[in-house]
Model the fold of this input.
Amino acid sequence: MQSVDPVLLPFWNGRVEQAFRPEARAVMLSGDCHETLASLPRGFAKLIITSPPYNLGKAYEKATALEEYLQALDPIVAQLVKVLAKDGSLCWQVGNYVENSEVFPLDIFYYPFFKRYGLKLRNRIIWHFEHGLHASKRFSGRYEVLLWFTKGDKFTFNLDAVRVPSKYPGKRHYKGPKVGKLSGNPLGKNPSDYWQIVVRDWEIALWEIPNVKNNHPEKTLHPCQFPIELVERCVLALTNEDDWVLDPFSGVGSALLAAVLHNRRAMGCEKDDEYLRIATQRFADLRAGRLPYRPLTRPVYRPTGREKISQMPIEWQAKA
Done:
């Protein structure tokens, strides 16, 4: 577990506003996001990033048919498009909707949904994780999808802020006018749309960011919690300092914390009082330097094979 030194946050005094102000650094609005979004200024948000509630049998969701669910989201998306800056991005992270053991890939359903609003898909990013519920009648799901849309053709994209180490930094051109010269970038390579944070950190382009389960340092009572590091790369790449980052379904505030960590302005909407309480406490913990936090470049743990739990049980050895 690691926490953030409050000295590293000189741009934020720890205050979380309960109403939107252009000069605020962090805002948490209580209530249904459809109502709260209507009061926000047009085009203020450089990045909207969220994981909307969807039907996975969670206690905080109602069991509705997929089409009804998408129709219910339509007026909210209309408000989001209104508050998104002309050069802004929308990142929509989803898994799968399952009904009677049949899988409906939500990202495929969402694509035409957002295209109707004129948004343009720039990447379909795969977030891979190694742990989750084990299926018995199909292969266990181990990834979710982050759809990155922009409102226009001119948008913020800071590639250098999120480059990863090259596998062969010493590679050189072997022919042509640049023969003998280094062919890569000294800052590293593009992380691509399939990200993994592994033992050697960002060496290959697969987003393997551990999902927030019981042994994750950021775990709260939220059943489907964003890991902070999943948001951080989007914040660094798609916004500049002082830009607004909005999460309309902010839950326990993970996306907002990622924004504040990197000197962005953060705003969230949440109607669950308990999640609001936890998010407020997490902001206080961040400012005090005691927020449990998994840093962006920390390697995913890999067992060495010497741990008892990673060895083949005696009872199974005869069956292996």
Observations:
- Residues 66-83 form the longest helix (18 residues).
- Residues 192 and 205 are 6 Å apart (CA to CA).
- The chain has one domain: 6-156+224-302.
- The first strand starts at residue 26 and ends at 30.
